Amino acid sequence: MTTYRVCCFLRRFRAASNEPSEAVRDVFQAYTDGGGVVGEEALRRLLREVQGETDAGAEAAAKEVMAFAAEQRLLKKGGLTAEGFHRWLCSDANAALDPRRGDMGSPLSHYFIYTGHNSYLTGNQLSSGCSERPIVKALLDGVRVIELDLWPNTAKNDVEVLHGRTLTSPVELNKCLDAIKEHAFAASPYPVILTLEDHLTPDLQAKVAKMLKDTFRDMLYISESENMAEFPSPDYLKGKIIISTKPPKEYLQTKSGKEEETAEDRAEEGVWGEEISDDKATALQMSEQYSGKYGAEEAEEEPPDGEAEKKARQGADNEYKRLIAIQLTRRKHDMDQDLKVDPEKVTRLSLGEKAYEKAIVSHGAHIIRFTQRNLLRIFPRSTRITSSNYNPLMGWRYGVQMVAANMQGHGRKLWLTQGMFRANGGCGYVKKPDILMNSDPDKLFDPRADLPVKTRLKVTVYMGDGWRFDFRKTHFDKCSPPDFYARVGVAGVAADTRMEQTRVMMDSWIPTWDREFEFPLAVPELALLRVEVHESDNHQKDDFGGQTCLPVWELRPGIRSVRLCDHKGQPLRSVKLLMRFEFFPSSSSSK
């Protein structure tokens, strides 16, 4: 029994038991022999029929399951017991995602790339400190694009990294470069792209060039020609650090300033932030508000050209320019021109969140065509003082490779980014689906179109466990065990975006829901499965119990173990859900 003290009384509850749920036990019983165990032949059949294994895969998996059960002493008369089957289902060996990597030999523009924004900040965008530590954490989490803002120090004789026009405290550039060198390939062997927003004089640019060469040496990728006809592949660039910025420009002296916090920023301040919308309302609002032109409201990397800049460029350090492997195109603030595809040369374009929102209203097809050959980066608007994030799907739906995220801004928007890059073995590069690479004008993808259902995903949430090991007995409720419920849904194109919820399981550390949900999917190639667990509280805001986000196209069919993460996206030590994933043709129903 588990007891909770309420004033001078003790409340007693049944002790937690991690036995299989009724639905899981029914699956096991369907394959047992007369002795209540599953033999090897029946296990192979179960693995084929329930877990979706091929004949060869079922053979190998059956041996692994039997070896696992033997090690746990959960075999009986040579067969697998119900407890052994349940323990294997809940193990990391039965995880929901396939860890294998796919094709890495296509040009960089064919991949979504895990991208950070203001990677050096420790907190908010206005007054937090700058440090190399957030850079290290981002690299260890698999981030492949690191952004550094370069400014002269007060003596104008050295370079610092800080968020300009704010009260952030600087960090030395050499500390950031050393951290990148040491940790760049700890989580992934594929290239790290270093985007520099420099506000330096030519002599300081020369100093940065020397620091880059001295620090990275052979790791630094230098293009053989100034203009590339096609980007190299991640495979070709393994172990390389790539510099991306504009050709040398003038140093613009600016003053620190403050920006006002918006209502949307405040909405993100909760433990998990605002709900993910289907973006239909936003798209309608944008189409009514904006025409085909956009200005320089968010030219984070793009001060206007002038006579002084031209003179500065003429005297700029040639070595600094030579190190820029991926040049950033200077925006003309005319979408037709900015998104024009040059068949002889590839480049990178950078758009602020607000400018991009305008662009997808009138030039969505242009963006898809542009990103089939070129790189596009979008970054959060400057008013996101609290380091909140926008919905990254608005970028991925149009093929944008670098959807920059504030890694300090935890919440549902960042969870989507973390979920996307769990794909492809977590290497930081995810191959774009074929629908975004089709250049036929008659078949160009339109994420806002009325799309037919392509497949149906049935998700069963059986049960959860692990909170009793990772949290204090009174963490969720001082007077009783927690009352957990699960939220399950999909984020993707507007037609696929939806959330569902289980019932609340009262007073249980090991909740059993046995609840099925079905999701018709028009674009499963861009769909992310969202899973959250909360603890119901009648008197105040529900407590957070864990979350994860998984790429639908990489889900392994069958009953799988799903590890939950905390609100920062870090895996919880013990908390897992047992879930089942089944895919059905669009024409049929799973019922």
Automatic annotation (TrEMBL):
GO terms for molecular function: phosphatidylinositol-4,5-bisphosphate phospholipase C activity. It is a peripheral membrane protein. Its EC number is 3.1.4.11. Keywords: Cell membrane, Hydrolase, Lipid degradation, Lipid metabolism, Membrane, Transducer. It comes from the Eukaryota. Residues 350-436 form the PI-PLC Y-box domain. Its main location: membrane. It is an enzyme of class 3 (hydrolase). GO terms for cellular component: plasma membrane. One of its GO terms (biological process) is response to stress. Residues 297-306 have a biased composition (Acidic residues). It catalyses: a 1,2-diacyl-sn-glycero-3-phospho-(1D-myo-inositol-4,5-bisphosphate) + H2O = 1D-myo-inositol 1,4,5-trisphosphate + a 1,2-diacyl-sn-glycerol + H(+). The keyword Membrane applies. Residues 250-278, 291-316 are annotated as: Disordered. SMART domains: C2, PLCXc, PLCYc. Residues 431-566 form the C2 domain. Gene3D superfamilies: C2 domain, EF-hand, Phosphatidylinositol (PI) phosphodiesterase. Residues 256-269, 307-316 have a biased composition (Basic and acidic residues). InterPro entries: C2_dom (IPR000008), C2_domain_sf (IPR035892), EF-hand-dom_pair (IPR011992), PI-PLC_fam (IPR001192), PLC-like_Pdiesterase_TIM-brl (IPR017946), PLC_EF-hand-like (IPR015359), PLipase_C_PInositol-sp_X_dom (IPR000909), PLipase_C_Pinositol-sp_Y (IPR001711). It is found in: Cell membrane. PANTHER family: PHOSPHOINOSITIDE PHOSPHOLIPASE C 2 (PTHR10336:SF154), PHOSPHOINOSITIDE-SPECIFIC PHOSPHOLIPASE C FAMILY PROTEIN (PTHR10336). This is Phosphoinositide phospholipase C. It comes from Panicum virgatum (Blackwell switchgrass).
